[in-house]
Amino acid sequence: MRNTAPKDAAEIEALETREWLESLDYVLQSGGPGRVSRLLRELSDHARRHGVKQPFTANTPYINTIPDSEQPPFPGSREIERRIKSLVRWNALAMVVKANKLEEGIGGHISTFASAATLYEVGFNHFFRGKGDRNDGDIIYFQGHAAPGIYARAFIEGRMPADKLANFRRELAAGGGLSSYPHPWLMPDFWEFPTVSMGLGPICSIYQARFMRYLEDRGLKNRSNAKVWAFIGDGETDEPETLGAITLASREKLDNLIFVINCNLQRLDGPVRGNGQIIQELEAIFRGAGWNVIKVIWGSEWDALLEKDHDGLLVKRMGEVVDGEYQKYAVETGDYVRKHFWGAHPKLLEMVAHLSDEQLKKLTLGGHDPIKVYTAYKAAVEHTGQPTVILARTIKGYGIGEAGEGKNITHQQKKLNEDELKAFRTRFGIPIADEEVVKAPFYRPSDNSPEIQYLLERRKQLGGFVPERRVQVEPLKGDSLPELFAEFQKGSEGRKASTTMAFVRMLAKMLKDKEIGELVVPIVPDEARTFGMEALFRQVGIYSHVGQLYEPVDMDVLLYYKEAKEGQILEEGITEAGSISSFIAAGSAYATHGINTIPFFIYYSMFGMQRVGDLVWAAADTRTRGFLLGGTAGRTTLAGEGLQHQDGHSHQFSLAVPNLMSYDPAYAYEIAVIIEDGIRRMYKDGESIFYYLTLMNENYEMPAMPEGSREGILKGLYRLRASAKKKGRLRAQLLGSGAILNEVVAAQQILEEKYDVAADVWSVTSYQELYRDGHACERWNRLHPGSKPRVPYVTQCLGTAEGVLVAASDYVKALPDGIDRWLPRRLTALGTDGFGRSEGRSALRDFFEVDARYVVVATLGDLARDGAIDVKVVQQAIKDFGINPEKPNPAIS
């Protein structure tokens, strides 16, 4: 009788495992996947209660998330779509090759789109919804380096002429060209969002998806099934902005958001994770953050092989190979792959014994398989309650063969030789003769060809072409604005207030206005109480998609923390990057959604320009409209906070942004004039500009608006107070801005009463506007030598003014120095160059040498230099004011 008892512990364990698996199969068949999940959870809890410590993992096996048994039928013609994709591939490649033949080093990228072509084409043919008549299409953030493929698609669609393609990266050529990457500033009818500063597209897409919900919940936009798609490179996920806000998307249950991460395993220099697996790493991150994760790793040819993997050896092998080795397989022969991948176990070799080396080499990856991509996209758009990320495995440079497919150099590949072009042409079946191939000609079939007819019909069914930037919004009338801001022209009538308080009062009034009230979007990164905005909690509420599920701890206080589904304030938490992403979404809603939302983003000024300067630049490129408000501004005005908080240079940064209008107002009426005019220019006249205003927390009396000052406030300079001394021998022109303007006013009085100097005080609301106007006049004069010269505005104001010129501000001296060339005499600038200190205002202004005493000394010093007074007067003034001439230089101490 044969002994069938298990021979050793290993066999016993194998038998037990088989019995458990058979039992689980029975539960699956009888109770379904839900019952299996509950049972496994109960078993896990039971084991944990009995001391079994299970290692945590957020990963699933290194295979496709959706098995082939759950794949839906592919709805289109795979053959026609393949031919369309091949045409797009060819024209994208030809565009870059042509550009670099015309001009060496002009650049361009072939390999990114080559790897992502299927990801885009399945979207274009089946999922990406155009704006249609109701402006409710999908919002798509295209990966910047894939721009040639998007241009090539538009060419095949018939909406991008060949001469534009021929001028790729040559925008200044005759007839115009195409920008290197997505830039709405340069192509305002085509691109919607700039994405090539890596990381900005992902974070902006998250806040865009949330802003879409905000508009719907507040009744400003009809609910729709529109999606926000963000196409991202796997290497791009190293940027903090890419992953830094993903928990917001899951917390807000943004099922209108889909990330598609092109996992070609390579960045510019080499593998993204040579010694690891980027797909598994990202899966763990996103699953841990609460996202729906769909992995698209293997193409359809792998399905039969996985079906035969009864003991899990193939799945185990897939999961143990690192990305650097997978990259190696992409460039090696089928024989190499057989030995090094399949040769890890005899059973694996047996599994592929029927396949030739060539067949092994051609086993497709998931991101290049339209069926797998379609399956993932369909699952993503139908998924509810969570955002979805699709991790699609591809090969960088797919299709360009020996020219760089899968190689580390492929990102920099700009040229192909004749043989490489022929090979590409043949591989993708492009009907171009051998003698023409070397010219890399563009190719588009006739309008009545099956490809063009199919393509156009698909876009018609999906609501129109994408990308397309369309501005279809009625301008605001703005009739109520003058009355709305009128009270701020009267001054505070003896009461003290800060410019921040004045702005919050304006904001409260705007929120109540019949025309613009519902369009105002206050945005704050967890500093509302700092800026005195807590009264708005009750007035308009803080937006929350789920409302308020708890009773706030301060419920019994009048100004309690009120969250509401229809809330208007976007309280973003401690994230300037997230807040400005919301600002961009709100400020570009006039084009994206056809809604004139007016964002006011107020924040600690120090944590604006220098922290999120890249996003500010993206806002400018996006043609964002709205107001950035740098609160608690001024290096000596923010008392106590010290070096990391005291801003004295944000206006220098903002100067570099061409369409950002920057102002440093001192008084409430200046702010009112600027905001009123800004709303008119942006939302009535439709100018693609936005604003930066600095606000202070120092309380002082707000004067009434001087008659005739409106033009000067907007242009950057006006005379605030003329000297009472009409015939004084000693004259001075004192320029002040922001909170330091009051120090200048105090200096005027000292100079007149103690030193007999007749000084006029000028309020400089914007050195940037004066600087730009001066250079614009110089340029015009330079290019029109025979015409009457134009005179800069600052020269018109001060060109005939008598006396020395002294300027003081709470910012670096480079700002006033920037207008020196258009003044009749040398300007002495006082500013706050250097690091801040934890001190009170008076001590800080003494340290940085910008208080009234230093303004007086600077004025007297210039008068002495000109021989108008004796130098001993200056020496005595320094002594009288208690100034230590040997004190450390604040700029370097």
Could you explain how this protein is built, in words?
This protein has 893 residues and is of the alpha/beta class. A six-stranded parallel beta sheet has the order 10-7-11-12-14-13, sandwiched between helices. The longest helix is centred in the first third of the chain and has 41 residues, at 9-49. The protein starts with 8 loop residues before the first helix and ends in a 13-residue tail after the last helix.
Q: Could you tell me the radius of gyration in angstroms?
A: 33 Å
Please report the total strand number as a whole number. 20
The major pleated sheet works out as: 6 strands, parallel
Distance between the termini: 96 Å
Poorly predicted spans? none
- Which structural class best describes the helix and strand composition? alpha/beta
User: What percentage of amino acids are in beta strands?
Assistant: 5-15%
Count of DSSP H/I helices: 35
Q: Fraction of residues in helices? A: 40-55%
**Going across the major beta sheet, what is the strand order?**
10-7-11-12-14-13
- From the spread of the alpha carbons, the general shape counts as elongated
Mean pLDDT level = 93
